[in-house]
Amino acid sequence: MTTRSSGSVFAALAQEQADLALRSLAQRRNRHCAIHATRKAIRRLRSLLALCGSSLEPEVSVVDRKLKRLASGLSRLRNAHVVVVTASRLARGDDRDIWLDVASRLAARRDALLADALSRDPDFARRRAQLGAIAAAVAALPWQRLTNKCLRHGMKRSERRAAKAARTARRKPDPVNRHRWRRRLRRLRMQKQMIQAAGRAAPSLMHYGHASVGALGELSDRLGRIQDLHMLRSSLTSLDKSLPLAQLRSHVRAKANLVAL
Hints:
The protein is mainly alpha-helical. The protein has a single domain, classed as CHAD domain (Alpha solenoid). Helix content is about 80%, strand content about 0%. It has 9 helices and no strands. The chain has helices at about 5-25, 30-55, 60-90, 95-120, 125-140, 150-170, 175-200, 215-235, 245-260. α2 runs antiparallel to α3, α3 (about 60-90) packs across α8 and α6 (about 150-170) runs antiparallel to α7.
């Protein structure tokens, strides 16, 4: 496989994610899901850029910083929706009514945050303009410099980072370390998926990376459930003190402890 064909395959994959992020943020129906889809597309794009990074420096670092800043600006909105969904999932059995009440209160806060964000950036026009400029910058990256050696290096680097995060999280399993572990697993899984997607057009890339996408996804999902429960537990402190907050927080902590790793 030639360097030029490697570059064209990954350039197309990157542009696909940039365009998906832009389309998702433009959606007006079900804004909460649209924000989630936007952030996922940005994560996939950043994962791809990190995989290819050493061949695309220094230009790629500028693009990545802009993507990170844009995603971070949407994180509060996304997290506000996550805790609503998580609380709703706990609404079962004898505790159903109280968790539905909690979910309703958190949903009101979530919707207020979204309304405030849209008042300051109507229809997310400013963010969409930023995404459009980023998409153009992605297309202009020096993809012709991409080499198979760089891809192999990028995959190995992600595997080392994920392994290091796993060791740290197992030695000290606090929310910060587990969240870092999850992020690195997620990036590695996304990069493996990108390699597989490129491999359909470029079969010689298929042997890169040793981690199983399925195993990475399963572990990342379990860590994600723990993270969601920790966010819900933290969010409970902002609710009306008439609720049995200590009991609810204890219940959430117990649920998080049940998630096997």
